[in-house]
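Hey,
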Amino acid sequence: MNIRTLLYLFPLGVALAQPPETPLTTLPYTPGVDLTAMDKSADPCKDFFQFACGGWNKVNPIPKDQSAWNVYAKLTAENQRYLWGILERLAKQQASAATAPEREVGTFFASCMDEATIEKAGLGTIEPTLKRLNAMASVNDIPAILGQEHLGLGGGDMMFGYGSNQDFENSESVISFLGAGGLGLPDRDYYTKTDAKSVELRNKYLVHIEKMLVLLGDSAAAAKQGATDILKLETELATASLTQVEKRDPYQLFHKMTLAELQKITPAFSWNDYFKAITVPPSASINVTEPKFFAELQKQLLQTKLAVWKTYLRWHLIHGAAPFLSARFVDENFDFYSKTLYGVPQQKPRWKRCVQYTDGQLGEALGQVFVEKTFTPETKQRAQTMTKEIELAMQSEIKDLPWMSAATKQKAFEKLHAIVNKVGYPDRWRDYSSVELKRDDFVGNTLRAAQFETRRQLLKIGKPVDRGEWGMTPPTVNAYYNPQMNDINFPAGVLQPPLFDPKIDDAPNYGNTGQTIGHELTHGFDDEGRHFDAKGNLKDWWTKDDAANFEQKAQCIVDQYSQYTVIDDIKINGKLTLGEDMADLGGTLIAYIAWKHATQGQDLKSMDGYTPDQRFFIGVAQWACGDERPERKRASAITNPHSPEEFRVNGVVSNLPQFAAAFACKAGQPMVRAKVCKVW
């Protein structure tokens, strides 16, 4: 659940020239405490983020192909450049590569880098689908075509989303899930907000749709009318969708139905035709996450003309496929979805996109190569040891909570002890041998890889859950907690310097990676995760009084973060960011306790002019050094459950007396809150 978010302008308007990027033969080393990243002229008791990160932000302007830039993003870029070198070599020797994964990723990367062949292919493998859509005789034809398209490049969220997931009531079983979808803008609020900026974005969205339809061969007049019809239809679907805050409550996403009950909600849509086309039968019970949305879909199926549905489906097909097609589609897609929505001035170079696509489509094949070359058994062991220490600290904190009863504490202990720690990479690698890969067919390779993954997910339906599976690829610079699996996951990519530095003392490592581990553990007990029990079932294991106490403690965090300004007059939506803010706060505290326990009895010395406690908190802050473009900040305020980086640092340390003691901060200073928030 933790997806740490990725200055605007370089100070004084100076634009630093960025040297041309080249592949890396080894990953560069950046120490876990970067003294050059600091702004020592800042008072840590007034603005700790500026103190810890002011220097980094000054010399690390956001690259032209990024909407944001921070330590996580920089490490991601370094991992990509390292993989670029590997993939470039493998692309030249696919047939003679030593292993199947090397041949697979080499072939895929080679096809992606062959821009001349991609340009000649035009629409490639999606052309037959466009013809099928144009040939529809009635709305009754939609289910069969949609079932096929949900397996393809652009159809995964067309009209609605369909897939598999663990049954909320029985986490050992995998069932069918149907969810709201069908929108071309990032969130339903983009359609419903009436402020000037939202209206402006919708107008630009209309222009983008028009341009894409023209690229498909529509006349200017037809494209203009088509865009208007699409926006109207999507607005109706958006209005019937849950908000981001509402979706944080898993009970609002749990509505199991039989196929007959689902058909009753949407009699105008033949689910038998749909499931026949998608080739994998649904489970006996289907979780329809948003019934109100499907009731609206039924309404639209009855009142929206066939011609509008054809245009809508063609639009979503090309929208999903655009990044993989010829330059005219790629460029127009970038112009709206990156430049307009997120303020990115420049397209990423081809090699970078191809590394990302290889990781996205064949992630565990690429992961095998990455792990073999970058991740040592010693690093894995140290991370596992740190995780155990932090779990013990979490146990101690739960034991001493004054607001929780013994009965609920016992259930909390059961959940904590059941959490599975996954470090580095899966125990069993995914087999991609059934994916047909051709050096001269990038769009086809991407389509077949997408179909492989969609079918793999759907074939889980009706089978026991595979608790060894990962939701991130090994090169990923990130981590997450899965409430239904009840596991925490730390890919090899995130366990690299400067985030995890085996060469330095424990203090900053516990502050940085330790805080991340604590963050993920705390997610199991945040406003969303607390609703799931030790086995990952949606089950209320709280007494009524304890639940009320939790809500009261959590409200303190909501109130605190809702006062912070993201940009202009836009405040943080404290209810949206509650889970991440709570995990930041709880994770930092238990990481600090774990570090103290791990180093108990040791004679810890000051280093580089900072005490061990100060180095711990510098480690807490320096993962977050960075900033976002203004457009990205506005978008994040709507869709991102994480607060901006400066508040993920200052908002946390201002609640911790341990921080105030470390830097001798006094009551009344900005980094010492009068009303301290503490849940875990």
